[in-house]
Amino acid sequence: MAVTDKNEVKKDTVTLTIDGIEVTVPKGTNLIEAAKAVGKHVPHYCYHPSLSIDGNCRLCLVEVKGMPKLTIGCNTMAQDSMEVFTESEQVKDAQKGMMEFLLVNHPLDCPVCDRGGECQLQRFSMEYGLSDGRAIDSRRKFPKEDFDPLIDLERNRCIVCQRCVRFMDQLGGERSLVVVNRGNHDCIATYENEMISGNRFSGNVVDLCPVGALTSKPYRFKARNWELQQVQSTCTLCSSGCRVTHWVRNGEILRTTPPTRPKNKRYQLDDETMEFICNAGRFGHDFANSDKRLMAPLVDGEAGEWNAAIDETAKRLNSVKEQHGADAVGFLIGGRSSCEEMYQINQLARGVVKTNNIDWRGGLLSKEAAKAWSVAFDAANGQLADPTVYDTILLVNADIGGQSPVDALKIKESARFGYSTVVSVGYRHDPWFANRINATVQVAPHQTAEFIGAMGRILTSNGEILSTDAANLADTIQADHKSMMGFLSQLQNTERGLLIFGLNDLGGLNAPAVTQACLEFSKTMGDRFKLLPFAPDRNARGAFAMGVQPDRLPGGPLNDDETNSRMTEAWRKLPKTAGLTAPEMLQAAADGKLKALYVLGAEALWNYSDSGLLEKALSNLELLIVQDNFPSQLTDKAHIVLPGNLTIEGFGTYADLSGYVIRSGQGRRPLSRIPAQQHCATLGEIMLAMGNKHALTNAHDVFVKVLELVKVSEAVDPDALLLGGPGESAPIWPHNTPEQARPVISSARPFSYYSTYKPAYRLDNQAIRQDTEAKLAGSKPVGAAEGDALTLTWAPVLFGKDPKLDLSPSLDDVREGGEIEIAPHTGRHHNIADGDTIVVSAKPNGDGVKGVVKFNEHMAKDTVFFAQNGIEFDATSGMQTLPAAYLRKAGN
Amino acid sequence: MPIADYTPKMLVGYETLVSDFRESLDSYRNRGGYEAFDKVLRKLKPEDVQAEVKSANLRGRGGAGFPAGVKWGFLPKEPQPGAPHYLTVNADESEPGTFNNRPILEQYCHTLLEGIGITCFAIQSHHAFIFVRGEYFDAQKNLNAAIREAEEAGILGDKCMGHDYKLKVTVHSGAGAYICGEETSLLEALEGRRGYPRLRPPFPAIKGLYQCPTLINNVETIAWVPMIFRDGVDEFKKYGTEKSGGPTIYSISGHVKKPGNYEAPQTVTLRDLIYHYAGGIRNDNKFKMCFPGGTSVPLFFEDALDVMMDFDSPPSKGSFLGSKAIQVMDETVCPVWVCLNTMHFYRHESCGQCTPCREGSSWMYKILTRLERGTGTMEDIDMLEEICDKISGRSICALGDFSTAAPRSAIKRLRHEFEEHVKQGCCPFKDKMDWHEFK
Amino acid sequence: MLVEIAIGFYTTFMKMFQPRVTVLFPEQTRPQPAHFRGRHRLQRYENGLERCVGCALCAAVCPSEAIYIEAAENTKDHPVSAGERYAKTYQIHLLRCIYCGFCEEACPEDAIVMGPEFRLANDRRDKFVMNKEDFIDPPEKGFGSPDEYKLTRSHPEAVKE
Questions:
Q1: Any B CB within 8 A of A693 CB
Q2: Pick from A693, A709, A725: which residue ends a domain?
Q3: Percent of chain B as helix, strand, coil, to the nearest 5
Q4: Chain B interface residues (partner A, CB cutoff 8 A)
Q5: Contact C79/A at CB under 8 A
Q6: Best of A142, A221, A228, A249 to disrupt the C interface by mutation (most C CBs within 10 Å)?
Q7: Any CB–CB contact under 8 A between A136 and chain C?
Q8: pLDDT band of B133, cuts 50, 70, 90
Q9: Does position A284 have pLDDT exceeding 70, yes or no?
Q10: Nearest CA to CA, how far is C39 from chain A (Å)?
Q11: Residue B430 to residues B332, B384, B433, C11, Cα–Cα distance (Å)
């Protein structure tokens, strides 16, 4: 149905007759959707439920009694007592005519076209068209132009339905694809042949295009759709947790698309999908077919046999445990592992080795940050499955745009249709996201907590916001008074709000202050704002639920009696000493106190920003066991490497940011050349070898056990997990309202609360330091930079360096994080222009790191930002270890 | 009334115009200009103005002939906050053979401006746009000069003629697209987008320019409004028929001795126009056929010569008054060539948004090319008719239907001449006509 | 009863002097109809380009799923087929094949045909999975020329506007 009802009272329906069948549909439903309700299919090309109505293909013509001409079904809304005929002689004649017209200039490309077999033109011409075209004149031809690394455009095949144009404009948010020329020479083009895949959602036009004009380049000519097996699964790259379908042949994933519907017996691309995935999920599956895959377990660098490797692992773990005690062993797990793997390693740590040293937050730099994460996740009560229910969405330091693209798309769509007002507070915003929401507020890192606190106080002080209060608050961040008043009023009038706060930027150093401030804000606002902590890891909520943290157990906190007794029953005795968080474990390893480290998944330490400490820690360890599938810095240093299965080769469940759990689908049984050992099985067998007779070795059994022990999320039906994929669930995307017959120009540019350059107001004089002596305690906020120094800020981005995306060559041209970002007027102040090469150094005119500048107007003053896993930077570049940032042009 | 007694009311002094003539403000005022505007602002209310125009039976002169007063009534009674009303004057005169708006735009600008003033007052609009086709450089120049003149004289601006009424008029240039003469395409072009017609509903009267209620009328329609208020409804209706009031301007071109614009009451017949006003067929040839209202309407043949050229009589002979552009063709003209010529135009001007017009016009053009060259077949003639049936009524805007008007009427009446092309393997009129190949 | 035996022996004896109908294969062969369906052949155009574009329609229609195809893109310098796409891998499992000829009917390019070769005996099952080099005609046997649109895809310089 085309309308999402927000207000139950307004529910209104109409009753009409379609081909003699009476049906009642909600008001505002067009005739194509109404016909679907009675099981009649009205063929169409340009209409799509998620896009504005264009009415240009003229194929959906239907006959309505009383109207002199045939009318298009997509733009005619159902009215009471309408009589509609979708199969009358006139309609059939019109359909045949339109199909014949479309085939006049369409080339005979079916044998060489990738869309053959799932092409709507083929399908409708067989079902609704003539058997033979009668045009004998030559066709119009366009030259082939190559403009995008991921999408191939074949203009000759285009039927100018303009779905791609509307998608890039409305959902993609940038009008990068347009129609040029006139009449029969209409074709799709971009400005100066620029690529469209700079936009993270460009791949979706391949699904939307009803013919083979836009096709996927990485998939080009690989297979025909009928040869492929559809595996309903989930993408494991970010916490949006999209459902996807992997199309598999002979165990090889050839393409990934949004989920196809279970009744899709035609094995066709779903061109009416209402769920969209980002380019990372779509093109980033090559790691599953990579030949860099580790094949056999390695013990001290030598490939060996599984039984021997597992015995050796058990033996060495036991030996470290006997010599140095259980607390000399630490366990780290990556945020992309499944719940079952997390449960298994938790049992290995607590139930067998008997230590509480287990953590999954290997990107954090301090134990206070880790504590803040625990507190934040405990307080989570919001959801992003349907952002339209909130009238205000307030983001604080949450880079959803750069780290969870699809969640960002959903939020932005909610803003576009006017369901929610979206405002983002932070020191740096992803430009795509920032330009498409209602407003951004630029607040330096050291001011964020105080700003939120002051906001909360103003909003609940008198019932009416005093303009002096608003002006004072605006002055603290050099913002415009009137805008600040508007911003505060919006928040005060919010009845259902969502507060999303980010935790993983700056290595989590700002997390304690921000978490504290946000929790207090929510309380002061009387719970009108639901809380949602943002972490980009695919299974962050799952990790919290599985208790792979020193302060938690599966299903509850460590110091909770009920949880303790439940887990003691499951795992026998539980360790008593307090456990170390990930940053503490690394510090302990560097100091020589932690002797053994068991790491499951390279993601565990991928975003740890103190590379010096990491080097030291890994080198000092007596025993490093890494359980991962691909070679990395960790496997190079490991004493024992245990490869395992990929998501598609086994059973696994994952919880997305809102807590909804999805199961991955099994696309291939492990072939003989691929390691058959499942991660869960490896962990179970290690536990068995170490003496635990009750360890489970099968992921499915673990899943059942977990359901016994843990309530994963309040709103989830455990039976739904076993479906392994999409049912006919309601679409979770904000929808077109029927009045949107014509696309409205993208929402007014959001105003930035940023104004002229003035010295920042400082809370205290502490500079940001990454050396370990200057750790911040309690909830003190991150400090400001001194003197002429700029505050150095960093956070990971999804399209940067990534253990999985690095193995996908298709995405090479669209990776992100190659630049150093500063606000435009910071650049002016330092005489630096957009695109200049500069040096960022710890001391003025000292040695430093070179990079290219990119201006970002949605940034706080005196701040420098770079992606910590950007393609040009990484932990080894040394950037994060700079205590302060001085900029100068390179070449001086 | 007898046509001999008729003196032009709009194109005053047109026959003796010198080049570059633009009627100045003073000259216009001397013959009673802007008195009607003043009277309307002083004495009448918007609904009164609409009622008077309705009773005068002023029909839209752009081609559809829709009663103007009724159209004005479609807009909301009162402008809502945030949704001001707009008037858009459609001066995108691109219908082939039509040049009857040109004198108004180039020479009689003030007549148009006064009409705009009264119309805007009637629909409570304070901003009017004149969308002039890009090729009419002089018209744009002259209109801008006239607007400047009027603003300096206090006729337009913040206090029109001293009354408490604001009006701003903006001239906007088109860029060479016939499709922008279609009202919603025009709005799209005004907003800075590609001139693609919009889907209706919603209609421009509710959601038009910038999604605000908008009235779009043809130049000539608006230009006749001052006469209604200056000379009175009865005087206006005297020059028309019962259902269609006022005189109108006919553009006559083609194989006539004196082509040009002729203002006449609507009671003239086609014969009057061709033989009396335009001096008859060139070389005293025989009349074969003509387009009565631009190439978008079906052809008229000898039996239609005595049809009265108002809005309601031509349909009795199977055509429409359209844009009042009579293009006369004598016995030397090949109907296939005529269809090819018009199809060349529609194929070039089709916006390409919807399937039937975009593909159909191109296909018909290719078929007609083969027919004219003599390499066509009998099936091609049937195919042409079938394509016409498949396009009409199914496109987004009327351009689709317009493209089918000429071929349909030509084949229906002169099918034997089409068949001659096939039988002879070449165009039978090759030696008689100024025949040339199309690209 | 002796009479019947005698007649039987006589009939058999007389057969010795009647013309043989046995064909002494392989020295002698029976005439073969033009439409005989034997081992497949992949045909070419007269300019040497392969006709097969790797569209996999033959694989789709094959009742026994005997054909496996992997397609790839033609390079501008060394195009294999006349279009933009060619069959990189073309495998037919001749033991699965039922020699029905549907693949020949389905082919839009007149590429795959069933040829006259029927001497396919072999001693190992895996030798019956044959690849493109076993089916492709030599370049001299090419016929016809690809239409201009197809040719411009692999030879853009051939575009004449």
A1: no
A2: A709
A3: 45, 15, 40
A4: 177, 194, 198-199, 201-202, 211, 347-356, 358-363, 366-367, 370, 383, 390-391, 393-396
A5: no
A6: A221
A7: no
A8: very high
A9: yes
A10: 23
A11: 9, 22, 6, 88
How much is the ipTM here?
Answer: 0.93
Q: Where residue A724 falls among pLDDT bands split at 50, 70, 90? A: very low
| Residue at which a domain ends, from A685, A709, A733 | A709
**Contact criterion met (CB below 8 Å) for B353 and B194:** no
CATH for B248-330 is: 3.10.20.600
Is the CB of A110 inside 8 Å of chain C's CB atoms? yes
* pLDDT for res A566: 87
- For chain C, which residues make up each domain, given as ranges? 32-158
Alpha-carbon gap: A107 to the closest alpha carbon of chain B (Å): 14
How is domain B335-424 classified at the CATH fold level? de novo design (two linked rop proteins) (1.20.1440)
| Closest by CA position to B323, among listed B140, B177, B178, B129 | B178
Query: Where does residue B420 fall: left (phi above 0), alpha (psi -120 to 50 degrees), or beta otherwise?
Result: alpha
Q: Is A100 on the interface with B (CB under 8 A)?
A: yes
Residues of B in contact with A75 (CB under 8 A): 199, 201
Instruction: Quick: pLDDT tens for B11-62.
Output: 988 887 777 789 999 999 999 999 999 999 999 999 999 999 999 999 999 9
What is the band of A718 on the pLDDT scale with cuts at 50, 70, 90? very low
Cis peptide bond N-terminal to B202, omega within 30? yes
Residue A141 in contact with partner chain C when CB distance is under 8 A: yes
Sign (positive or negative) of CA dihedral A691, A694, A698, A703: negative
| End-to-end Cα distance, chain A | 63
Query: Is A111 an 8 Å CB contact of chain B?
Result: no
Q: Give A551-572 as a DSSP string.
A: TEETTEETT-HHHHHHHHHHHS
In B340-353, which positions are buried (b, 16+ CB within 10 angstroms) versus exposed (e)?
bbbbbbbbbbbbbb
The domain containing residue A856 runs over which residues? 785-889
Give rounded-to-5 percent helix, strand, coil for chain C.
30, 15, 55
| Interface contact C149-A141, CB threshold 8 A | yes
Distance from CA of C143 to the nearest CA of A (A): 20
% pLDDT > 70, chain A: 86
Taking an 8 Å cut-off on Cβ atoms, the answer to whether C83 and A111 are in contact is yes
Q: pLDDT class for A838, splitting at 50, 70, 90?
A: confident
Does an interface of 3+ CB pairs under 8 Å exist between C and A?
A: yes
| Architecture of domain C32-158 in this structure | 2-Layer Sandwich (3.30)
List the Cα angle A839/A843/A848 in 5-degree steps: 30
Q: Quickly list DSSP for C13-80.
A: HHHTTSPP----TTTS-----TT---SEEE-B-TTS-BS-----HHHHH-TT--EEEEEEEPPSSS-S
Report the residue from A53, A70, A98 with minimal CB separation from B393. A70
Task: Tell me if A27 is assigned to some domain.
Answer: no
The shortest C-alpha distance from C59 to chain A (Å) reads: 9
User: Residue A460: pLDDT above 90?
Assistant: no
The backbone region for B32, taken as left when phi is positive above 0, alpha when psi lies in -120 to 50, beta otherwise, is left
A30, A47, A56: which to substitute to probe chain B, counting the most B Cβ within 10 Å?
A56
